[in-house]
Design a protein that fits this description.
single chain; alpha/beta; Rossmann fold; eight-stranded mixed beta sheet; 19 strands; decarboxylase; metal-binding; EC 6.3.2.5; ligase; FMN
């Protein structure tokens, strides 16, 4: 009998659960993992079981739940679980658990598993702000990251009781996105953007016709949010200028600037981009806007206008490039996105090459759109074009994977100017 190959079997994930109030959210992470075809073994701490019972984890995972190394001794679980895992995710990672892991303690099944794991490890902290900011916690996190462990950035918001601040567990959807990225590309989240400030635009602009109706587009904002999320977890200080999106959770560790119209997006990008290390224009900007706007809702009984008079919206990427060239904006790397459909005479890639030459940005991501591609879907694909004859195809995959490839290319651009801080 031959053993099951890694290509044939579902991904094996160990879900560690620390003893914090956010342990209940691990149930949502578990459900999302199992529903997307992962085989999940839950390994809680004893403290975690004070918040969520073993029966809940067993029912959701279909696997037994143990906390100590003396259960199923014959299977040598404290070694086998880590050896066989494709990914270990710890939700929540408490200050205590981060400290024990950083110092190599192995006093229960979870910390023993973390010592034997040779796969990617994602630890998702949740704790009060004072604990997150304490020097001991910061030192433990730095030590873990230096060893290759991905320690996610916590979100800001409501904590236990009436407290509010940084230390909230990120949304389960964001945790799943990071887990999926690490399963696909284990080295996708290096801390290579530490000390960098990046500005990203996302979503679709809306141009009002009246207080109810508008001209817009099909952008969901997922790609821009993925760019922001990945950049934050790679260590950057991130500003996300967000137009309209579809039910997206604010990425953890990101500063948000909400906008509505193309003109509002233009003003925000010109304001926020000065001094940025990298600017990525991924928002879908409406090409046109109505020349006039009705102050009241246009009624069905009203006589419909013979034609809708439109004006061109500003080309924000072109303006950023021009302002940088004139020395009025200090931007190290400028990247844009181009959504193309192609036609019988010209391919999507050829249109992208032409746009790169015309725009003059440092990098351009070209997406083929239509027929369920790029807009309003979870995944993406395309080509990454850049100065110096850079031309790389980005395979179909999660939008966070495309985001990681973009930040890889931005890092290469930094290196071209000597990597100056």
């Amino acid at each position: 009998m031959t053993s099951e190959s890694s290509e044939d079997r579902p991904p094996r994930v160990v879900l560690g659960v620390g003893g914090g109030i956010a342990a209940y959210k691990a149930c949502d992470v578990l459900r999302r993992l199992t529903e997307t075809g992962h085989r999940v073994r839950v390994v809680p701490t004893e403290a975690a079981l004070r918040f969520v019972g073993a029966a809940t984890f067993e029912a959701l995972s279909g696997q037994p739940v143990h906390t100590g190394v003396f259960s199923d001794v014959a299977d040598v679980q404290h070694v086998r679980l880590g050896q066989e895992a494709d990914l270990v995710v710890v939700v929540p990672a408490t200050a205590d658990l981060l400290g024990r892991t950083a110092h190599g303690l192995a006093d229960d099944l979870l910390t023993s598993t973390l010592l034997t794991a040779r796969c990617p490890v994602l630890m998702v902290p949740a704790m009060h702000t004072e604990m997150w900011e304490h020097a001991a916690t910061r030192d433990n996190i730095a030590l873990l990251r230096a060893r290759g462990v991905t320690v996610a950035e916590p979100a800001s918001g409501r904590l236990t009781g009436a407290d509010t601040g940084k230390g909230r567990l990120p949304d389960p959807a964001e945790i799943i996105d990071l887990a999926r990225l690490l399963l696909t590309e284990p080295a996708a989240l290096p801390r290579d953007l530490e000390g960098r400030h990046v500005v990203i635009s996302a979503g679709g602009t809306r141009e009002p016709l009246d207080p109810v109706r508008y001209l817009g587009n099909r952008s969901s904002g997922r790609q821009g949010y993925a760019l922001a999320r990945v950049a934050a977890h790679r260590g950057a200080r991130v500003t996300l200028v967000s137009a309209h999106t579809i039910d997206l959770v604010e990425p953890a560790g990101v500063r948000m600037v909400p906008v509505g119209t193309a003109e509002e997006l233009r003003v925000a990008m010109l304001t926020e981009s000065d001094g940025a290390d990298a600017v990525v224009m991924s928002a879908a900007v409406a090409d046109f806007r109505p020349v006039s706007r009705d102050d009241h809702k246009i009624k069905k009984s009203d006589h419909a206008p013979a034609a809708l008079e439109l004006a061109h919206n500003p080309d924000i990427l072109a303006e950023l490039i021009a302002e940088r060239a004139a020395g009025r904006l200090d931007i190290r790397v400028l990247a844009g996105f181009a959504a193309e459909t192609g036609d019988p005479d010209t391919t999507v890639l050829e249109y992208g090459r032409s746009k790169l030459a015309r725009k003059g940005c440092d990098l351009l991501v070209v997406n083929a759109v239509g027929d369920g591609r790029a807009f309003e879907v979870e995944d993406n694909a395309g080509w990454l074009l850049g100065s110096g004859d850079i031309e790389r195809q980005i395979p179909h995959g999660a939008k966070s994977l495309l985001a990681s490839r973009v930040w890889d290319a931005v890092g290469e651009q930094f290196a071209l100017d000597g990597g100056r801080p």
